[in-house]
Amino acid sequence: MHIDNSQTQHVSTIERAPLRELSPEVAERIAAGEVIERPVSVVKELIENALDAGACDIRVEVRGGGLRLIRVTDDGYGIAEGDLEQVCLRHTTSKICVFEDLSRLHTLGFRGEALASISTVSEVTILSRAIETEELGEEHAGVWITLQGGEIVECGRRARVHGTTVAVRNLFYNVPVRLNYTRAMRTENGHVVQLLQRYAVGYPGVRFNLVVDDRELLQTSGSGDLAMVLTELYHLSLSELLQEIKAGDGEHYRIHGFIGNRVLAQSSRQYVTLFVNGRWVQSRRLQEALEQGYRGLLPKGKHPLLVLFLEVPPHEVDVNVHPGKLEVHLLQEQVIVSALTQAVKTVMEQSPAVPEAVQFPGPALASQRRLPGPRRRGLHISESAGGYRAGASEPGTAEVIASLRPLAQLQQAVILAEAPDGSLYLVDQHRAHERVIYEHLRRTYAGVQDSQVADAHLLLEPVIIEMKRYQAELLEQRLPMLRGLGIECERFGGRSFLIRSVPVGEGSEQLAAHLQELAEMAAEDSTNWQDQLLIGLACRSALRRGRVLGEGEQKTLLKALASTAAPAVCPHGSPILLHYSRTFLIDKFDW
Ligand code: ADP
Ligand code: MG
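That is the input. Now the predicted structure with adenosine-5'-diphosphate docked in place:
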C-alpha cells in the first residue's frame, strides 16, 4: 500500500513540478467555490502552500486582525523566477495537470485558485527564491512582485535564502461588505491561533511561529514529536497524560495519534482534531465516528484532547468535494468509520485516571487575550519529555488489574492495590462492581430473544408501581423485552404494574427499593432507553460505598473487573481507576 506520510516531508525530498494553467475542462471539474471568506482563510491557504513546498519552518505574522497584514514566510523550495508572474492567475498550479492527478494527490492544494482569489481582494507581494538557484551567484538572489487587485504593479530583486514570503496587505479593501463582516479583530486572531495550533499538531516536524500585532502567540520546535508539540502548545508536560492510538489493516487505512487522559477532557470539541492524509478535515461522518468511540466513556458533554492521523491510499480519498477542502469522501468509508470508533474506544476503555487536577488548556490559549508571561509549566509529572507511553510494549490495563494485590480498603469505598511494577491503584468499589454488572446484563440482554425468559430472581414479595398514563403505554409495549432481562412485570389494572422478579445477581434484593425509578427508566421515551435501564440496574444493584470488603471479596471484585471490556470507566463515564505511577511517586518524593 502506498500511503502518503505528509508529516515527515522534507524539502529535499519534494520536487517541484512546473507551473501550468489547467485546461478549461479540468478546471471545470474541480469543485469551485469562494475560498477567501475571511482573514483566517488567507492564512490557511498560505500555510498550505508553504507545506506543499516542503517547508520545515513557517512563520506567520498578522496585524490588524489580518486586514492590515498577513505575512507567511517559509523555507520551502520556492517559486522559479519565470513562474512568479503566473502564480496569481486563476487555475494556475504546479500540483495537478490532468484531472486524474487528483487520485494520486500528495499536496494540500490543487486548484490553483488561492493566490488568484487573494490577489484580487488585496495588495499582495510575493518574494521567492527557488532552491536550485542557491548555488548560483547573488544576481539570482530572489525576486519579488507586487499585485494590486490582481494586477502586477511592481517587481524587483532582493536577497534571501530559498523559500517564499507572501505578504497580503489591506485585505478586502475593495470589498466593503467583507470589511464590515470581519470587524471583530479579536475573534479573527483567535481563529488564526486555532488554525496554527491545528497545523502545528498536524505537522509536528515543521516549526511554526505566530506573531500577532508584535506578540508571539505560538511557537513550536518542529521536533517531529507530537507529544512535544502538545507540550509546546499548551505548556503542560503531557507525556503521562497521553495514550497512543495505533491501528491499521495494512490495506485501506492506518490510524495513529494520541488521546489525552480524561482529566484533560473539555466541554468543547475544539481539541478533537482529525487529519486525513495530512489534511485537516471536518467531516461530520468522521467526527461522529470519533465521538461514538468515546461516548459513554467520558461524562456527557465532555470531549477529549484527541489528535488522530488517518492515512489512506490517495486513490481511496476524494478531496474534490468541498470548496474549502474540509470535507473528504472516502471510498472505504464504512470500514474507516468503524475503525476510528474502535481505535478510540479501545484506548479510552483501558485508560485509568491520573491523580492531578490538570488545568487544560494551559496558558497558551489564554494568551489570545493577553501577553504570554514567561513560559510556565502547568503540571509537571514526568521529565521524560516526549517519552510518551507506547502502549504496545506495556501490559494492558486488564492484565495489570488482574495482577493487582489489594492492600487495604479506604473509607469502605476504595480498594488500594499495588501493581507488580510498584505503582498504586485506587479502585472505586461501587463503580467497579457497576461496570461488572452492566457488562453482564448487556451480554444477557444481547443473548436473548424477545420471547425468551432470562434467569430471574424472584422478589420476596411482588412490588406494585404506579405509572403516568404515557409511561404506562410505553411500559406495556416493552414488557416482553423486560422479561428478556429477567424482569417479570405485568399490568395490574389502570396505570398500575406488578413486578415479580429482577435480573439475577448479587445485588438483586437491593433492587426492590428502586423499582419505581427503574420502571420509569424502562418507560423513557428515548431510543437508548434499554442501555439507560441496564445502567440503572447496574448502579442500583452494585456494591455501595460504605460496605466493608474482606480481602477475598476485594480480590474477587478486581478479578471480575479485569475481565470487563472497559475496566477504567463506569457506565456513566466516570473513572473507576486512579493510577499513581512509579514516575509520579519518584517525582513527588524526590527519590
Ligand atoms: P494551488 O496551491 O492549488 O496550486 P495556489 O493559488 O495556492 O494554488 O498556488 C499557485 C501555485 O503557486 C502553486 O501551485 C505553487 O506552484 C506556487 N506557490 C504558491 N505558494 C508557494 C510557496 N509558498 N512556495 C512555493 N510555491 C508556491
Ligand atoms: Mg494553494
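The radius of gyration is 29 Å.
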